[in-house]
From TrEMBL, chain A:
Keyword line: Membrane, Transmembrane, Transmembrane helix
TM regions (residue ranges): 20-36, 42-67, 88-112, 124-148, 160-181, 201-219, 231-251
Protein name, UniProt field: ABC transporter permease
Domain of life: Bacteria
Tagged with keyword Lipid biosynthesis: no
This protein's record includes keyword Transmembrane helix: yes
Signal sequence range: none
Natural source organism: Marixanthomonas spongiae
From TrEMBL, chain B:
Classification via InterPro entries: AAA+_ATPase, ABC_transporter-like_ATP-bd, ABC_Transporter_VariousFunc, P-loop_NTPase
GO terms, molecular function: ATP binding; ATP hydrolysis activity
Domain ABC transporter: 2-227
Keyword list, A-Z: ATP-binding, Nucleotide-binding, Transport
This protein's name: Copper ABC transporter ATP-binding protein
Transmembrane segments: none
Lineage: Bacteria, Pseudomonadati, Bacteroidota, Flavobacteriia, Flavobacteriales
Family annotation (SMART domains): AAA
Pfam families tied to this protein: ABC_tran (PF00005)
CDD domains cross-referenced by the UniProt entry: ABC_DR_subfamily_A
């Protein structure tokens, strides 16, 4: 698997899009820092961008890479390589190169600004770690969608729908149900609903870490009580890991029975 | 060498292989023939494990190939359409495949020389013509010394000189005692090199034997007409 990972990774490192993605984050980091002149505020703004953009890029890149490397896959399938290694290697190649663009692209401006001497270092690290997790999750979901759909257009369509659902529609439904059922106690419901969507989960994790949960009102207090504790933090990290593990399992499972 | 027992494969509603029983012994050149859509490529891809059969067993050297991948170390495969990752150069591609099968010694220099590929080594695969791609394909297939060689339409796009070289190459491989499985639509090519033919029709084996047997069976003086008569009698 490591060999496949290596080839996919270097293949992507040579592609123009990895650089565009990297430069975008570099620019974003620099602009935010110079506009805000405050590390903590820059981290908050970045969070809003990352939470929406990282899943989108992960999904699109994942689907695109799968369909574009069809020839490579077919070539590998006739070689003495395990099937699941081919797909897991390609998946990790995409996910790792995207995470690297994110971490280095955002990391560089912050390092030069002096993040190591500031209190925001942990917030910032958490931001990058959740960003990497979101990349892993959404690239894996994209691979599952691509494996299930021979048709490129359909695959792309489903992938975009998935992103739209997770990043936008889910919140809408969530909010509407909160308004609709406002007569009832909703603490547990909102906690569970937040934890089931990796996008929301990441957002809440970062917001709470930033100590601006007061902005969240009463719910914030409930959330703080839950996520602020070690138990909450470990549970949410575990959920992120599960969000990576389940689609990865599906990639492996589907790869085993697909015809080429 | 290869034992295939009751092999079935469906793609959706389209039943491509309807119970193939085939035993191929070691050594010799076997041609798998049949009209378009008769299941030749599906049969080959099943042996390679690229297609997962619905039913039936395929054994290679006595061991079932199901859920296994190590056996592909013993197979060299030439795909029908030379699809390569376009942004690699020829050299990088050869290096990569060698790296993937690093337990084998590769004989790429001689083959690159044989097909005169030196001027293309640093070119990207996207920029190569169909025939040159096929030559690269041949180099990748023949550079390892595996006991089973599977060639799916090896002559596609080749110029006459390369065609002759390919025939020489196949004959030389046969002399080493290898088993070679070929599909082709060029009957003169098949007649010239193959020891035995397997004729597939609508997902079943319709005929198996030597070319001489086929000629006697169909009472036709030449091979091409024998095949044609077999097809027309089955369509009738």
């Amino acid at each position: 698997m490591l060999k496949i990972l290596k080839y996919s990774f270097f293949d992507l490192m040579r592609s123009r899009w990895s650089y565009v993605y990297f430069l975008f984050y570099l620019l974003l980091g620099i602009v935010l820092l110079f506009l805000n002149n405050d590390l903590s505020k820059a981290v908050i703004t970045l969070m809003n961008v990352i939470i929406i953009l990282v899943p989108l890029i992960g999904t699109i890149f994942g689907v695109m890479y799968y369909y574009n490397s069809k020839e490579f896959t077919e070539l590998l399938l006739a070689q003495p390589v395990k099937r699941s290694s081919i797909f897991l290697g390609q998946y990790l190649g995409v996910a790792l190169s995207l995470s690297m663009s994110l971490i280095i692209g955002l990391g560089l401006p912050f390092v030069f600004y002096g993040i190591f001497n500031s209190g925001a270092i942990w917030d910032f690290s958490l931001l990058l770690v959740t960003g990497a997790f979101l990349t892993l999750i959404f690239t894996a979901l994209a691979f599952v969608i691509a494996l299930a759909n021979e048709n490129k257009i359909k695959g792309f369509g489903y992938a975009i729908l998935l992103w739209l659902f997770m990043a936008v529609i889910y919140d809408g439904i969530f909010l509407m149900s909160l308004v609709y059922f406002e007569e009832y106690p909703l603490d547990t419901f909102s906690l569970v609903a937040t934890m089931l969507n990796p996008v929301d989960l990441s957002r809440v994790l970062i917001l709470l870490k930033l100590d601006i949960s007061a902005l969240l009102g009463y719910t914030g207090a409930v959330f703080q009580k839950f996520f602020g504790t070690n138990f909450g933090f470990i549970l949410s990290s575990l959920l992120l890991v599960i969000w990576v593990a389940v689609p990865t399992f599906f990639i492996q499972h589907m790869a085993k029975r697909k015809d080429f | 060498m290869i034992e295939i027992d009751n092999l079935h494969k469906k793609f959706g509603k389209n039943e491509v292989l309807k119970g193939i029983d085939l035993t191929i012994d070691s050594g010799g050149i076997f041609a798998v023939l049949g009209p378009n859509g008769s299941g030749k490529t599906t049969l080959i891809k099943s042996i390679l494990g690229m297609v997962v059969p619905n039913d039936g067993i395929i054994k290679l050297n006595g061991a079932s190939i199901k859920q296994s991948w190590e056996y592909r170390n013993d197979i060299d495969y030439l795909p029908q359409i030379a699809n390569f990752p376009g942004n690699l150069t020829v050299k990088e591609l050869i290096k990569m495949i060698k790296d993937l099968r690093s337990n084998k010694t590769a004989d790429d220099e001689r083959l690159i020389d044989l097909f005169k590929l030196q001027p293309f080594l640093d070119k990207k695969l996207n920029n190569l013509s169909g025939g040159t791609k096929q030559k690269v394909n041949l180099v990748l297939t023949f550079m390892f010394d595996s006991p089973l060689v599977i060639l799916d339409e090896p002559t596609t796009g080749l110029d006459p000189i390369s065609h002759i070289r390919l025939k020489e190459l196949i004959t030389a491989e046969k002399q080493k005692g290898k088993t070679i499985l070929i599909t082709s639509h060029i009957m003169s090519f098949v007649e010239e090199i193959s020891d035995e033919i397997v004729f597939l029709l609508e997902g079943k084996i319709y005929f198996r034997g030597s070319i001489a047997d086929l000629k006697t069976k169909t009472e036709q003086p030449d091979f091409e007409h024998a095949i044609a008569s077999m097809l027309s009698s089955s369509y009738a």
